[in-house]
Write the structure tokens for this entry.
Amino acid sequence: MNPSIIKNMLLNIAVLIITFLIISGCQMKPDPSKELKPLVDKYVEVWNSGNLGNLDAIINSTYAYHSNQSPDANGLDGLKKVISGFRTSYPDVKIVLDDVIYSENEASCKWSLIGTNTGPGEIPPTGKPVKQWGVSIVHFADGKITGEWVAFDNQSFLEQLGFKMMPPSEKMN
């Protein structure tokens, strides 16, 4: 057999062995959505149903809620106050996840909600419906939700309820 053919065969075999070793040494990370999606779905269901007892199984004791429009809330009791307060003002609230991207310990969610402001809360009930979208970044550890950062356009939300932006009066200058 021709020495150059043998040399090429050995080179090809070496490349195949190295490729196999590299591929077999690389481990595929598990799909984070398999573990995190059920938690996110249960969390959204609590917002939609108001069944706060279901939070105990999915919320970590160190939970922290941050929003660009409301005060922070800490712990399970703080989160329960946030949800029950919102559901008191908007008892028919329905939240839908429009898009979710899962990574190792967090989920980035684009959501939309509809509801009618019929209950008391931070503002008097207006009886008007709202339709809003926002984003949340939900954090996880040890199989539970540890926190959430929420952002949405509060001006649009308030305008749907009938509030108007007014320029400052001259007396304020």
Remarks:
- The first strand starts at residue 59 and ends at 67.
- The CA atoms of residues 20 and 26 lie 10 Å apart.
- Helices lie at 3-25, 33-49, 75-89, 154-160.
- The chain has a mean pLDDT of 90.
